[in-house]
Amino acid sequence: MSPPGRHVLYLSKRIGSREGGSEGERAASIYIASVMKKTDREIRLQHFSCWRSDIPSLIIILAFSVIAYILFLPAPRISFLLASVAFIVFQMETYSWALISKMLPRRRATNLIQIVPPKNENNLKFPKRVILTANYDSSRTSPFGNRTLARAYRFMYILLFLCILGLTGVSVVGIAGELAKFSSRILRVIWYFSSPLAGYILIFTIILSWGEIFGRTSPGANDNAAGVAVMLSLLEGINQSPFENTEVWFVATARGFAGGRGMVELIKKNRKTLKGAYVLNIDHPGRGEIRLLKREGPIFGFSPGKKLKKISKKAARSIGSDIGFSSCRVKKSDAMVAQARGISAITICAMSGSTYPGWRSRNDTYDVIDQSLLDKVKSLALAIIKEIDAS
Questions:
Q1: Which DSSP state fits 10?
Q2: I need a surface site. Which of 131, 231, 337, 372 has the fewest CB within 10 A?
Q3: Which CATH number fits domain 4-51+107-141+222-390: 3.40.630.10, 2.60.120.10, 3.90.230.10, 3.90.1170.50?
Q4: In the predicted model, is pLDDT for residue 121 greater than 80?
Q5: Global pTM exceeds 0.70
Q6: Alpha-carbon gap, residue 361 to 211, rounded angstroms
Q7: Could you read off the pLDDT of 295-331 as tens digits, one per residue?
C-alpha cells in the first residue's frame, strides 16, 4: 500500500494546477486511472460536460442585484424583476442547483469510479454501501484565500445574502410606490438609504472578479490533492482486504470548483443505487486539526444526519484521537451536494479555526502538507467504514 504523500507529490508538484478544463485536470485523471488499474478491478469513467468554475455565475447574479438597485427610480418594474431573479438564483446556485452556471462555456470532465465489493457478495442481496469521494480539480487563487478573509468568509457571505434580500425588499417598495403613486422624494430617500446594501454587493463582486481576472493557478496540494491521495491509499488497502458486508465505491470527482458538479453527476446517474448509501468525503486533510463536519455550506448549511454522525463519533473514539466536530462554510463540497439531495454524507478534513488552510491560496504547496495528518485521516475513514460494516 503506497503512502498518501506519494500521490500528493505527483498531483500537486509533478502535475501542479488542475483547473477545470485544463491539461492539468486531464493529466490528474490519467494518473488516478493508472493507480486504480493496479487493483485489476473495472474502472468506470463517467464523462460529462461542465463549466470550469461557478464563480462567473455568482458575479453575474450579483451584477443583476446591483443593476436592480440602479434601476429602482427610472424603471421600478425591471428593478423588481432583476432583484427577484437575483435573490432566487443566488440561493439555488449557493446550494449547487445550477441555473446561471448552465449558460457558461463547457468542457468535458470525467469522474473516475472503482468499486470494491464485499467478501459476502454472493450471499448479500442488499449490501451496505459507502461512497468514498474526493474532488481532484484545483482552483484559481483569490483574495478570499487570504487567511483573514477566509476566516471571515461565512460572515461575509451571509451579509451578502442579507444585502440581496434587502435590495429585493426595496424593489418591492418601488413597485408599491409606483402603484400607490408615492412622491419621487420619498422614493429617492429610500434609494439613498439602501445604497450601502448595493455598495457591499459591488465590493464583493469586485473582489470575486479580481480573483477571476488576476488569480493565479493554485498547486492545490491540500485542496484537494491530499484528499485524493488518502482515497487512493484506502483503495489499495481495502482492495486487498474487502469488508464483510459493505460495498465501497471510490470516486474521484471532477469539477468540485464548479459547484460540486462531479458529485451532482454521480448522483444523477446512480440515484437508485445510492439510496441508503453513506458518503464519506475527504477534503483538505493535510493541514490543521482533524475534524468531522456537522454542518456544511454557506448561509444555513446541511448536516450529515443523526445516524452517520453517531457512527462517525464512535469511530473517532475508537482510534483514540482528539477528533471533534466542526462546521465549515467556505465551499460546496461533495458531501454538501449529497446532503442537499437527501443522501447521508459527512466530510472528513483538517481545519484551522473555521476554515481550510490553503483554500484558494497560491501557498497551497506540497512542502506544507503534514504527512502524519494524512495517515490519521485515512485511519479515521477506515474506522468509520468498519463501524458501518459492523452496524
A1: I
A2: 372
A3: 3.40.630.10
A4: no
A5: yes
A6: 11
A7: 988 778 899 989 999 999 999 998 876 788 988 877 8
